[in-house]
């Protein structure tokens, strides 16, 4: 029975934290299995690995950055959601809630804003009528993923919404030669949405209004996608999108490492071994596992600590044991900070190396 080879994406594991004391962050946090894995691993620099989840996912499929140095998520998710692939420039225009405070607007985590199919269709119809056929036309292929299909790449830079959560909104809006025009368009969008009957009904039910759009992820679909995986597992949409485009089976995230190991080992029996396999007979599996990224972007220190303690028991300890017993052929951990931690055959498993406290790695990231 073949043993799988696992690459594990861990956004949030090492931050990025803002204005947080690293010693206090990790004080009393007991993560012996994780610290042992990081300490024993061979550390390899990879400039493609950035801390944002969609960047980490795209780097695993060798997706290049778009013209604005962002990750072209929009044309990939566009195809995943059923959009016609004809070489057009696709831009995400996701529905968001912008919350006003004393001095500025701030973005509520889009994951906390749910939109029904009927609401998405009605809001986009209102906006499309307002701007007319000569203006950008929204296509709500998914209730939470709306799109603009443009004739050419706009000369502007955008940011994924999660990079703007908790910060000054003005610093995260589109910028560049055409940034001003698109910011003006977004302001007009807000005025239309403010008067929408859909939002009046949402607020009457105690739901946050859809009072803005977030532009990001623009690009043209790449001609090909490298897919060096036999299976991917994730509970978000970017990895399944990439997997579908690359012809790789995708499954929902298993509740813990033991359940995943049982599934992965059972599915590798009798499988052909593609070229470039790191260990003969082992299937290459890719998993995205939120290592506290939701808590990091919300500034929730206690939530992040609780999340890592949960992962220690459900993932890191079983994976450490699986490496020792050869139930796992190898393991790569990607933290998203320009380096990956590799444990696997060929160089041994580094059992002689001493584990290092997590705060050492956190301090390294804080110094970058």
Q: Percent helix among the residues?
A: 25-40%
Q: How many distinct folded domains?
A: 2
Give the oligomer, counting copies of the same chain as homo and different chains as hetero: single chain
Task: Give the C-alpha Rg.
Answer: 22 Å
Main sheet strand line-up: 2-13-12-1-11-9-10
Count every beta strand, where a strand is a DSSP E run of 2 or more residues.
13
* pLDDT < 50 stretches: 267-281
Element order, helices and strands?
EHHEHHEEEHEEHHEEHEHEHHEEH
Mind explaining what this structure looks like?
By secondary structure, the chain is α/β, with parallel strands linked by helices. The protein folds into 2 domains: 5-64 and 225-366; 73-219, no CATH class. It is built from 12 helices and 13 strands. The chain has helices at 22-26, 32-40, 53-59, 73-80, 117-131, 179-194, 197-204, 238-246, 257-267, 293-298, 301-324, 358-366, and strands spanning 5-9, 42-45, 89-96, 98-100, 105-107, 138-142, 145-150, 212-219, 231-233, 250-251, 284-288, 330-334, 339-343. The chain has a 7-stranded mixed β-sheet. A hairpin with a 4-residue loop joins strand 4 and strand 5 (105-107). The chain is globular and about 65 Å long. The two termini are 43 Å apart.
Q: Would you spell out the secondary-structure blueprint of this structure?
A:
Layout: E1 5-9, H1 22-26, H2 32-40, E2 42-45, H3 53-59, H4 73-80, E3 89-96, E4 98-100, E5 105-107, H5 117-131, E6 138-142, E7 145-150, H6 179-194, H7 197-204, E8 212-219, E9 231-233, H8 238-246, E10 250-251, H9 257-267, E11 284-288, H10 293-298, H11 301-324, E12 330-334, E13 339-343, H12 358-366
Parallel strand pairs: 1-11, 1-12, 9-10, 9-11
Antiparallel strand pairs: 2-13, 3-7, 3-8, 4-5, 6-7, 12-13
Helix pairs in contact: 2-11, 4-8
């Amino acid at each position: 029975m073949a043993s799988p080879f696992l690459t594990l994406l861990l956004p949030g594991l090492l931050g990025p934290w803002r204005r947080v004391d690293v010693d206090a962050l990790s004080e009393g946090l007991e993560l012996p299995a994780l610290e042992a894995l990081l300490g024993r691993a061979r550390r390899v620099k990879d400039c493609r690995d950035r801390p944002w989840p969609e960047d980490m996912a795209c780097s695993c499929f060798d997706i290049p950055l778009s013209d604005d140095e962002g990750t072209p998520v929009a044309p990939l998710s566009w195809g995943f959601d059923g959009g016609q692939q004809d070489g057009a420039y696709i831009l995400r225009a996701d529905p968001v809630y912008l919350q006003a405070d004393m001095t500025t607007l701030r973005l509520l985590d889009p994951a906390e804003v749910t939109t029904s199919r009927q609401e998405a269709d009605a809001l986009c119809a209102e906006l499309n009528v307002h701007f007319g056929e000569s203006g950008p036309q929204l296509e709500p292929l998914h209730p939470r993923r709306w799109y603009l299909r443009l004739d050419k790449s706009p000369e502007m830079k955008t940011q994924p919404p999660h990079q703007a959560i908790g910060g000054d909104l003005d610093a995260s809006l589109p910028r560049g030669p055409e940034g001003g025009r698109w910011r003006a368009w977004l302001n007009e969008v807000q005025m239309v949405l403010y008067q929408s009957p859909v939002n009046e009904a949402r607020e009457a039910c105690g739901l946050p209004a859809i009072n803005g759009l977030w532009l990001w992820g623009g690009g043209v679909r790449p001609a090909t996608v490298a897919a060096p995986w036999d299976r991917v597992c994730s509970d978000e949409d970017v990895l399944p999108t990439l997997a579908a485009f690359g012809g790789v089976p995708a499954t929902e995230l298993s509740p813990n490492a033991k359940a995943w190991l049982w599934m992965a080992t059972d599915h590798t029996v009798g499988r052909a071994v593609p070229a470039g396999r790191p260990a003969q007979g082992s299937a290459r599996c890719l998993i995205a596992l939120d290592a506290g990224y939701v808590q990091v972007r919300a500034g929730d220190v206690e939530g992040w600590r609780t999340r890592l303690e949960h992962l220690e028991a459900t993932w890191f300890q079983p994976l450490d044991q699986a490496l020792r017993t050869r139930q796992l052929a190898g393991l790569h951990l990607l933290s998203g900070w320009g380096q990956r931690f590799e444990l696997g055959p060929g160089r041994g498993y580094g059992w002689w190396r001493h584990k290092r406290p997590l705060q050492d790695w956190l301090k390294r990231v804080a110094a970058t």
